[in-house]
Structures are given as C-alpha cells and as structure tokens.
Amino acid sequence: MAGSRRRALSMQRPERLTPRALLQERGVDLRDVVAVRAGGRVVDLHTPVDPGVELEPIRAADPAALAVLRHSAAHVMADVVQRLYPGTQVTIGPAIDSGFYYDFDRPDGAFTERDLARIEKEMRALVKRDVPFVREEVDRDRARELFAGMGERYKVEILESIPAGEAISLYRHGAPESKAGTWVDLCEGPHVPSTRFLGAVKLTSVAGAYWRGDERRPMLQRIYGTAFPTEEALAEHLARLEEAQRRDHRKLGKELELFLFHEWAPAMPFFLPRGAHVYHSLIDWIRGLYRQHGYAEVITPQIFDRRLFATSGHLENYRENMYLPTTGDAIDAARGRLDAALAAPDEPALRERAARVLLERDHPAFEQLAQKPMNCPSHCLLFAHRRRSYRELPWRVADFGRLHRYERGGVVHGLARVRSFCQDDAHIFCTPEQIADEVRAFDELLFGVYRAFGFDRVAVKLALRPEQRVGTDELWDRAEQVLEQVLTETGVPFEKLPGEGAFYGPKLEFHVTDAIGRSWQLGTIQLDYALPERFGLEYVGTDGAAHRPVMLHRAILGSVERFLGIYLEHVAGKLPVWLAPEQARIVTVSEKHAEYAALARDELVARGLRVGLDAGADKLGAKIREARLARLPYLAVVGDDEVRDGTLTPRAREEGDLPAMTRAAFAELLLTQAEPPRPAPRP
RNA sequence: GCCGAUUUAGCUCAGUGGUAGAGCAGCGGUUUCGUAAACCGCAGGUCUGGGGUUCAAAUCCCCAAAUCGGCUCCA
The whole model's pTM is what? Predict the structure, then answer.
C-alpha cells in the first residue's frame, strides 16, 4: 500500500528535513514565506519532505498563499468559537474564492451579528499572540479515540470517510502554556507557520448550511469570513464588495425605473416603460441577427393540454417546476360534483366520487392544463404538423415566448432567477450529419454577441448525462461525443461537468466574466435525440424513406431577464446609447429657454432619437445631477448663448463637457452611437 | 423547501411599551439661475397581513406573506 510504503521509506531515511531547514540552508528569507510548493503539492514549512524534492517558496503576496492563509483563519475561528460557545461541534472549514467558512453544530441556537463581532475580536487577539501551527501524523485509531473523546461526532464521521491507507494528519495551534491550551483539528493542511501570517481577518456573515450539502441531514451554522495578508488587501476586497453592491441590478432597476416586483406576483418582474424599452431592444437586436443566420420566428401558446408535456416527458421529469393552472369552470364543476356527493351521503358510489374530488389529483378538473416552462414541445408540434423534407433542414425555429417555472421560495433572486421570463430560445431540427456544422455556427454567433456586449472572457463547459434522464445510453454516448468533437475541432478550451446535463440531452454551457470579475452562465446549446423520438418526428430523406431528425436547443443570452440583470451590473447601469431608454436630455439654464429647448427636443425626436426635456424651475446644477444619477449617455445644455446661436452644449456621460455644436451635429453624434453593434467575427 | 435576518410615507432610513418622525421625491408658492442638490410652505401612514399578551403594542409573543444572505436546486 502506498501509504505504508511511504512511512516505511521515511523511517529508513531519517534525513528527511523540513522545508524550513532546507530553505534556510539555501539562505532564503523566510519572513513572509507562508508555505512551499514541493513536487506539485503545497506543504507547510514544518512538514518534512523527501530529500531532493523541488522546493518553491509561496510568499504572502503570492495568490496561492491566500488559500493557505484563509484555511488557517478558519481554524483560528473554530478555536475561538469553541472557547466562547462550549458544546459547539466542528465540522468542515475550507477556504473559498472570497475567503473561508466553517460549519458548526451549535446546540444552543444561531450565531448573531453580535457573536461575530465577539469572535472576530478574539481571533485578532490570537493572531497577535503569534502562535505556531503544528502538523502531526497519527494512526486512525488514535485519531478516532481523540475526536470521539472530545465528543466531535462529525470529525469521527469524516475520519471514517478517509480512504484506508491515506495518512491521517492533525493540526494544532495555540499556546500550551496558556489557559486556552492548544486547539486541534483533523485536517489535511497545509497551514501558515504561525497566526502572525493572518494579517487581516474579517467575519462577514452567518448562514444555515446542510451537513455535507444534503438537505436531509442536519442544518449547521456556517460562519463566513475572509482573510488577507495585509489590512490594505482586506480594505481593497471590501471596496470591491461595495462596488458590487453599488452595481446590484435590483438597486439599479429601482433607481433607474426599469422594473419592479410586487408581492402579488412573487419573483415575476414588472417592466416599467424604461425597462421594457431595453428589454425589447435586446430582443429586436437578436431578431435582426436571426434574419441573417437563417432562423424563422414563431409564436406558440402559453397554456396547453397536459398531453403535450406528458408526451415530452416534462410532467414526469420537470413537474416540480411547473405551473399547472386550471379554469374557473373546471373548479366550479368539480365543486358542484363534490357538493352533490356530500348532499347524498347515503350513496356509497357518490361518496367515493366525493373522496376522489377531494384527492384533487385524480379529478380531471385538475392537471388538465399545463403552463409552458419551455418552448421545445410546442416546436415539435410545429415540426410535425406536415410532412417534412430533408431539403427543409436544418430548420431553425426561434421563439420569444413567455415561460413560467415554479422556483422554490428561497432561490429566487432579482432578475437573475425569476418565475416568469423569456429566453432568446430557438430549436434547430437537423439531420445527425448537420449537428457539427450547426453547433459550430452557433458557437460563432454566440461569441460575436458576447463580444458586442463587452464580455470578452468566455468559459465553455460540457455538461454530461444526469441521473434522471430520458433516452438510451447509446443515444447519450453519441450526443456527448459529437459535442466534444466540435469543441476539440474548433480548439475552444472546455471543462467537463459530469451529471449536469438536461434530462433530454448533454449541453454546452457558456459562462462570461463581467467587469468586476464575476462569472455568469448565459448561453447554452443542448443536443436532444429524445424529444424527436417521443413526438415521432420524421423527415423524408433523399432515399425517400422516413428519418428521425435531431433537435438542438439553444440560447445565447439565456433568459432575457437574467441577461438584463447581469448586463446592468456589467455596465454599472450605464447603458450604451443604442440601448438607453433616454439617450439624451435637453436641460435649460432657466425657464426663459424652455421654448427653444422644446424645439430642439422635438427635432431630435423627429429623427428617431429618444430625447427628454428638463425645462423646470430647478437650477442647472440640480438638473445635471438628476441626469447623471439617471446615467443618461448625454445631456445638452440650453442657455442664452445656445438660443442665440441655434446650438446645444452637450455633456457626455463618459467624456464630460463637449464644445457647443449645432442641433444637426448633435443629432449626428447621437445617431452614429444609436446604431446597434454588429457581432464581429472571432479574431 | 431549510437556517438566519429584515419589512415604518413613492425612495432611503430613525423611532424598543405611553400622542408615528427626518431627508429626498410629490404638490403649491418665491427665485430665473451656466455644469452633481435654491428657499418657504403643504400634503402624504390600516408602522407587511392576521391573531394574542397588556390599562396601553410600530415596539413583546404566535401564525402567514414578501424580501435579503446562505444551503439545496437552476436560465
């Protein structure tokens, strides 16, 4: 066994030294060395390594140091928590992208903001004392005895899940001479040499989290925090968080009067005129691209007989996310039958029927209808409505239909996750031979669209078959293969996500990185052999025989709602001229200039521009402030000079003051920028 | 759905058991002004909804809803 041989080797070779000793020999300054990279692994300075292994110090400023530092901060936090709140058990506490967390099982309730402040204070004190971290390898039985003795049930469970033969390591920190003693955790490491390296720690929030992420297991208390080598780095991080808060699309949506929510339609956005304008502009732009790329747009119903979704498999596989509406008539009829049955309680047959009405799900009045959560099934009906020829393929059907999906209360979030939305959805019906070309063409179109919006970093993921799925394994094999092949051919780097595919087919996911470094999934293309099968779709091939088409589900923006939210945050509410609901506003210096300002506004509006007018009694400064807060691309000042010369003095959102220009020149300036972008080919 | 928090005027928020407040926005008036907030006044509230405790509830307790941060799930 590898583990025991490693131990045996180390016994034979007592010359194994610690990286600290080895680096000191080489005269390396160790003051800011957090850990070392030793033959591809990150290890502590005090963990002996095999002689001759390549050592590369990781210094505090190195990005790789952050994870080590934060994981150590999690230990310090757990130590403090267990001292302050006796009886609390520890579970796991990893470093994450933005910091770290530790999950606790605390018998006497949840942690409050106040608790966080208290814990943070104690952590700082411990950091200041600069106590060392020490690693110790022990055998499994000793570790079990240790944690069982401390009553740490979760640690014992983790211990049991460590594969036999793997080394069991403990980490201690603390001052044995002090009253607090040392604190020990079952941990793989590595850790910083001593608490001094945790330059700046901050606890950020508390949350519930299931043990091992499983909603059937106990709910634990998770404390989130973050740590940086210096106070400056922490301050920078907090500033970034504030920036994200400033850009929050929910806040911008309210401030810029784009959309709102109401508790009578939870998680279903209402778009105000300005928001609706942006929304429609996005759709119109995509529509224009469709015309160039051989798509045909269709309109399909909202509500269907249940048989549509029984055929597609949605009622079986997607039921928990579906709205199953009914009609007043159906309810009244059911109620009538129920009343009649209850009025004749001596009739066993009627009583039985009443019982069935009460059971609702057995009664035909319920679940007769289904609100569509996806467009694909109705597109299958369109395909099937007459005989199709191979000459018609690929048939690309686009649909901006409104979709409704019931999402659990805790998961909805602004525009990012809603219950009513539309996608830039299209389905491509094609022959198996056409798949690769279609995926390639889509890929090209998608990258062009993202670049047009300023999303330059795109990550591609290949989501493979999930557990709950329709279709045979052979179909899945073929589908997964073809997607992987196209990606490999086009040379797009990608990551595989096992188990993440849709229930009807594997998919490519396209994730963009926004202006402040966050990643969002937007587009997707999904391969589907199953739906054509279920709907019995066929086309006549060159051979005169019937063949089954393949279906590709694809979207570039994803949901228009979600895209709008992400894009608003990407541009911090500063919509470009082509999308801005109000492209410019004429503001007057005083009310004397109102007449000329109205004339200028009318002229611009007549040229198709979206121009507002502020001729009110406020001072110029106030009007400018208001226009700036509304993030208007341009304002144009009108005072005595402009009225005299027949000009406007524009002020641009980005460039600031511009020289006075004629009204026609200003119109030209706006018109050139009002042109929607053209998706550029990949460089 | 689960854990925790929040909900007071259109918006942002103060008010912790004893007569509901501020700023901004709105409306009216005064001012007619040159690049991020003129001045004065007026109006605006079943304190999210329902139930309870109390002489008395925005405030304490219970139930529900919505929202926020997470978990789980996803476009």
Answer: 0.91
User: Catalytic annotation on A293?
Assistant: no
Q: Is the pLDDT of residue A14 over 60?
A: no
DSSP assignments along A44-69, one per residue: -TTS-B-TT--EEEEETTSHHHHHHH
Q: How confident is the model at residue A619 (pLDDT cuts 50, 70, 90)?
A: very high
Question: Nearest CA to A90 among A161, A151, A174?
Answer: A151
Which of A16, A161, A131, A98 shows the shortest CA–CA distance to A517?
A98
Å from the A264 CA to the B63 C1': 20
Question: Cβ-count burial of A650 within 10 angstroms (0-12 exposed, 13-18 middle, 19+ buried)?
Answer: buried
Residue from A172, A202, A277, A507 carrying the catalytic annotation = A507
Contact positions of strand B to protein Cβ (< 7 A): 1-5, 11-12, 25, 29-38, 65-75
d(CA A577, CA A172): 59
Containing H/E element for A8? helix A2-12
- Within A465-578, residue ranges assigned H as helices are 473-490, 530-534, 560-570
Which tokens sit at A422?
């539309």
ipTM of the complex: 0.94
Is A379 in the active site?
no
User: In angstroms, rounded to a whole number, what is the distance separating the alpha carbons of residues A20 and A27?
Assistant: 10
Kindly determine whether the C-beta of residue A372 is less than 7 Å away from any atom of nucleic acid strand B.
no
Q: What is the pLDDT of residues A334-354, one digit of tens each?
A: 777 777 777 776 777 777 766
Contact A483, A527 (CB under 8 A): yes
Residue A30, CB, strand B, below 7 Å: no
